[in-house]
Amino acid sequence: MADLGSLVAAALFLSFALYRALIIWRGSDPAQRYIAGFAGCMGAAMLFRAPVVMSALRDLAPLDTVVMLITHELKSFAHVMLLLVGLSLRPAAADRKAQGRQIRLAAAVLVTGAAVLLMAGVRAESGLATAPPDRRWFLAVYNVLFAAYGTWCLLVLTRELVRQTRQVAAGPMRTGLRLMTFAALLGIVWTLWVLTYVPMNLTQGLHTASEDAVCSVLGAVTAALATGGATATWWASASGGPLAAPGRWLSAYRTHRALEPLWSALRTELPQIALDPAAPRRPVLWRAEFDLYRRVIEIRDGHLALRPYFPADATGRAAPTGTGGTAVGPVGPVGPVGPVGPGERSAEVRAVVEAATIAAALEGKRAGRAPAGAHPSGPVSQQIANTVAAETAWLLLVTAAFVSSPEVAAARVRARTDTGGLQDGPRSR
Description:
The chain is mainly alpha-helical. 66% of the residues lie in helices and 2% in strands. α4 (63-88) runs parallel beside α6 (136-167) and α12 (260-269) packs across α13. The radius of gyration is 30 Å and the shape is elongated.
């Protein structure tokens, strides 16, 4: 297990380093160079610390001891690269002095770490790093220094990744940033795992020269998350390909849930719109795209079925007045939301009108009679474009207005009054 985990992690890191190196040759920002440097250093360290490699080096003493020292320093240097990645994500004007301080600190940590290992007199014997009894504490100090500085670097990176994620719209870039954030958090656990060796350092003067099973697994998973996150824009670019399918499923699932309030209100009053009455309200993830398409159809069927109850004055009475605008907030990154019209503001206003029309018609349907002035033909629904994505985007705006717009709430109350519904007490949305 330790061999497999270490070799898988090394292969992932080194392959990614090569991939990034090719990008660098075509020109890139500093963050790309730091990421490539991190992957190269960590991949080389994991490769040389694989148990099978360390076993092969036992017969080449003292080369095995030299390799052990080098791999420890490679891991520390990889942490420095991660710190620089985090700093490169900050605004350039505010970051130059901080970057200079961190580079000086990193150099001091690397030199101190190497000096402590040399003073510990560490030797590799039978797969273990050993230190003389009077120098055991040097080995423990090195591991504490490694864990503390590595954790600090990863925390800086995590903070910047979280900040960047909040500023990026839904899509492959945000997915990649989230995966890299998870990789950084798991990397903290991986780095802190070295502290479990400290008791053995102090009592026996021993340390594993190669990766143990837990470290190997943590390294492999961290490498997979980091590589997947950093290449998210590449593997998600083929929107119809199998690699992008989980992302599409998740997006469709979230959009399916976002349409729930409007769909549920229509389905309650018009159960006949259900294309599959036995279908669960929450779709299975890999069927979410199909179930979302069905939900859009059912909402539109409900819209058509309510047309005899549409109030004639819904457009004039629901439209926001003055400069305050409507209370409809942004729908947010819940699905394949694309452009919905020539102006987002006017699209939201039109969505309020349609939501108010539906809300009023539902009140009339509940009361069993149409409001005064209703006519069977009813207004035609807002048309966006002849695509499922655009239709879904429009219905998301309508749903948001249906739930939260004060204009829609007012239209609902007026419809209850017109149809005599208030005598039965307040009704739910």
